[in-house]
Every structure is written in structure tokens, then in C-alpha cells.
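Example record

Each entry pairs one chain with its bound ligand, NAI.
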Amino acid sequence: MSSFEVIIIGGGPGGYVCAIRCAQLGLKTALVEGRETLGGTCLNVGCIPSKALLHATHSLHEVHENFEKMGLMGGAPKVDWAKMQAYKADVVAGNTKGIEFLFKKNKITWLKGWGSIAAPGKVKVGDEVHEAKNIVIATGSEPSSLPGVTVDEKTVLTSTGALALGKIPKTMVVIGAGVIGLELGSVYARLGAQVTVVEYLDAITPGMDGEVAKSLQRILAKQGLKFILGAAVQGVEVAKGSATTRYKLRKDESEASLASEVVLVATGRKPYTEGLGLEAAGVDLLPRGQIRTDAHFAASQPGIYAIGDAITGPMLAHKAEDEGMALAEILAGRAGHVNYDAIPGVIYTTPEVASVGKTEEVLKQEGRAYKVGKFSFMGNARAKAVFQGEGFVKILADKTTDRILGAHIIGPAAGELIHEICVAMEFGASAEDLALTCHAHPTYSEAVREAALACGDGAIHA
Ligand code: NAI
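C-alpha cells for the complex follow.
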């Protein structure tokens, strides 16, 4: 039996980052992972492979939409789907191998296999039991199921199956207009599939700033995605390799159905906590399946901690990473903290969507006095030069103190631009602080500054 100061179960972004930080802080660390490769859902079947397909298909979209305008003639390239899949696999392999290298560099032991808690301070992996002063559960999440829908990963898919289809479908129904549905729906729409998104609510991307959501829906509809909103999916039937999705419109209870070659079920994810021996270990779960933790990631039993999708909060890789780092600091006897008010969220469609902090809807609900500074990318020279004038930056600041409360961006490189505002929020900055900061010209970032100026005496280019 080997013994460690920390054993982490789960090698996704939460777990592996926690392991690296623990090792850097001098703790003898092991990580249990049953997949062939490290990196969890994110690197293997989530964020990273989807970004490869999004990049490839975005490039194709650029050729179709803009190349001729710039005098680049010759027509669109042919799509070699097998090669695109191989490119995606290479991107994934490069990243997962990178984590393995970091494990060796930091002298972290990878215990290969599926782990469970055998007894207090003991983790079982295969036939072996290892001792741990601290056990960290970082097992992530899995797609949640939908009544009446059986996933076979051939015709009825989760994101995992949708990333690895044998061929490009002609028609696709996406259930759920959340992040996964819109990202993967975009991929296949750009590849020529007729994509119809069926969403239960009356708007896409729940929780997102309403104006941004409307704008995104309009832009995606122009790109060919069809939306059926306010529709509750009742079931999916598969016959002879094709699917029929039945739904009920909430406004009048009328029923309808849609036929398609494949169906992507993207109705959310649930914490993955089965088979870990949590019940026997006396670890409390919350009603929705997450592990109950305190502000320091401690579960209800001493020596057991949990982070990432397995606990409450947004199911985002970077949130898990931050929790992993903060917990490592705590386990090393230091202070560890995550500022949940400044966690960005990004949707990697074209244009990208990014947000941090509160939405206008939430501020209204809270009865807070706020001001809005908005700036359209149509006033941004760089964006217009590259045909990306659609979209805007919206900054919300406290009416009295001018402190930034939230920001919502739809437009070019929104996923990068948002971080300027995250840093500003970490420092408790006012909109004026951003507005007084020199921004290089011509950059997309100038639109952020202009939105900050619009919180005060006004934007210059509006
Ligand atoms: P989601 O929670 O973002 O969206 C699910 C959507 O499905 C919601 O709009 C919901 O109203 C709808 N829905 C639920 N039941 C339905 C029904 N019966 N009929 C029609 N619509 C229904 O979930 P999603 O997209 O599956 O993503 C899962 C998690 O993964 C999320 O927490 C997301 O943040 C994360 N993720 C993040 C990414 C990123 O940061 N770029 C990329 C991919 C996933």
C-alpha cells in the first residue's frame, strides 16, 4: 500500500490542476484516472475537440462568407471529414500528452483505474488500496438524461457522440439551446446540415443577458440554424436509422414532430458521483446530486473534499480549475479562495459570446440602481475591417459608485475581451478606470473601453 498526502479522484481540469498545484506546494500527490488519457471530459470529449471542429468549420464559413469580398477567389474547399476528425484527434492528443508531461515534471503519481473511497483515508483503485491524508473528489459530470429519449450515440447523441460522427448528417435536431447545443449545432450547420434547435424556454441560452441572447439567436438564424422555442420535447423514436423528435408547444399544448438523421440531446449535465463509495463513507449529497461542501470545499466527512462539476456552481472547466488551485492552497495550509462573482462564461459560436458578473435582469430583480454603457462593434474600425461589426459590448456599473457589476459581449474575440473586465472586477474597478486606460488602436478591445466611456460622459465613436 502506498500512501500520499493527497489523492485526487478524477483527472479533468479540476483534478489535474489541483494535483499540479498540490505537488508544486510540496504535497506528495497521486491522481486516480480510469481513462486512457488525462484531461477528463474537457480535453477528451468536450471543450478541446469541440474547439477544433469549431475552428475548422469557422474557417470554412469565412471562405464562404468573406473570401470573395477580399479578392480571394477560387471557391470553397472540399470537406474531408475523416481528415477533419484526424485533426481534432491530434489536437486532443497534444493536450492530453501535455498533461502527462506536466505530471512527470511535477512528480505526481497517476494511479490508472477507477477509484472509490474504501474507508476513511483509503482509496481503492482496482485491487489496490492506497492511503491518503486528504481525498479530493473531482469526478465531474455526465450528460443528464431526458424522459422518453434513449441515447445510442449513433442516431441519438450526446455531445460525445456528436463530436465523433461517422459522416456529416444532412439533418440534425438539437434538443436544448444551451452552450453545447449552439456550439455543436453551429459546427454542423456550417458543414451544410439543416439544424433545428428545439428549446423548452422562450429564449435561448438561459441565464444569459436577454439582449445578448436575442442578438445571438438572430445572428445564428441568419447562419441557417432554425429555432423552435417554448417547446418541451416529449420523446424521440428511432426507426431505420432516422429519428422523430416529438414536442409540445407550451403556449397552446399543441403537439408536433420533426424528422432528422440525428438528434443531439443537450439538455444539461449532472454531477458524476456514482460508484465512489460516497454513501458508505457518509458523504452528504444535495438533492440535485452534487456533493455538499463548505466554503473550503470540505465534504461532510473529515479528510474528504470535492471540487468542479461534482459540487454546486457553474459547470465550467475554469471554475473547476480555480477551485482545484484554491483547494491545493488550503491543503498546504495556506488561504485559498475563489471569487465566484468574477467567473467568465463563453460560448464559442461565431460571433463569440462572453459574460461575467450580473446580468441586467438580475440587477433589476435585486432592485439595484445601475447604469448601462453599450457600444456596437459597428463603431469599431478593426471589427468592421474583418466583417465582424455585428454585436456589442455592454457594461453594467453601479449608478452611484460606478463600480463594474457585470459585462456582456457578443462579437469578435468576445471570449478574450471579457478577461479585461474580469481583472477590472477583481480589483473592484469602476467603469471610469477602464475608460481612462489607454487601449491600442485598432483593436477589438477599444469596444470595451468605449462601452466603459458610455457608462460616463459617452462613447467617442457612437
Ligand atoms: P445547458 O444547461 O447550457 O442548456 C440546456 C438547455 O436545454 C436549456 O436551455 C434548457 O432549457 C433546455 N431543455 C431542457 N430540457 C428540455 C426539453 N425537454 N426540451 C427542450 N429543451 C430542453 O446545458 P448543455 O448545453 O447541455 O451544457 C451542459 C453544461 O456544459 C453546461 O453547464 C455548460 O455550461 C457546460 N458547457 C460549457 C461550454 C463552454 O463553456 N463553452 C461548452 C459546453 C458545455
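Residues 317 and 396 are 25 Å apart (CA to CA).
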